[in-house]
Design a protein that fits this description.
Length: 74
């Protein structure tokens, strides 16, 4: 997410030609966009970072409820 924020800030600074960013090439920003795309589409999935820990916690809680429900019925 910080990469996306950096891309947005750099794009705004370049578009409005603020300070030293006025001469910044658009290719640097495009390169950052490509890196962000590759990260979110491929590397994040390969590393297993696309699933949040809260999702894992909810899944474990659901499994426990199912186990407890079937244990009480017997």
């Amino acid at each position: 997410m910080p990469l996306i924020i950096v891309i947005i800030v750099l794009s705004a600074l370049r578009y409005f030609e603020v300070g030293p960013f006025a001469n910044l090439s658009w290719w640097w920003i495009v390169l950052l966009m490509v890196v962000a795309f590759l990260w979110f589409e491929f590397f994040e999935r390969m590393l297993g970072l696309d699933r949040s820990s809260s999702h894992d916690k909810l899944e474990k809680a659901r499994e426990e409820r199912v186990k407890n429900t079937f244990r009480k019925d017997r």
